[in-house]
Structure formats: structure tokens, C-alpha cells
Write a structure and sequence with these properties.
globular; alpha+beta; 4 strands; 2 helices; Ribosomal protein S3 C-terminal domain
Amino acid sequence: MSLDNDGSLANLADARDWTALRTHLQSVIPLALWFNLTVFDENMMPINDVLITNGSPISENMEAATYVCASTNETYAVYFFRLQVSAVD
């Protein structure tokens, strides 16, 4: 949620700027954690056409969280961000 305090997640999804989204995540997630992010539209269809990740999973034990946000521009869209993380066991 701290990444979205200014509405930047929806703006990045609107722009389909997956590189900037990955960079934002890398700035807040510790290097010792693996992450993978999938962005879904309101129909739960994935919209990112490239992987938003920092490599390969480092463990079979993963945690996942989903965050919902909406764009505030004239096209108004709802996005679901599903973040998976894992750490070395």
C-alpha cells in the first residue's frame, strides 16, 4: 500500500509501464526475497504481457497478497495486483 499512496500503481497499469512497476517493487522489497507480480483487469484477466519479477523462485514456500486499486483518469479502470514472494527456507 505504501507504493500506492499517490495513486502511482494504477497510473503505471494504465500506461502498461511494467519496467517502472518492477523498479518500484525492487526499491522496497529486500534483495533476499523473490517476487512476482501479476496485474489483472476487472475481469481477472492478466494484463501484463511481460513478467514483473526479480528472477526465479528461491523456495517452494510462497506467500501471496492481492491489492485492489482504481485509476482516477477519464477511462476509470479497476486493477488487481497479485504479489507473490518467497524467501530461502
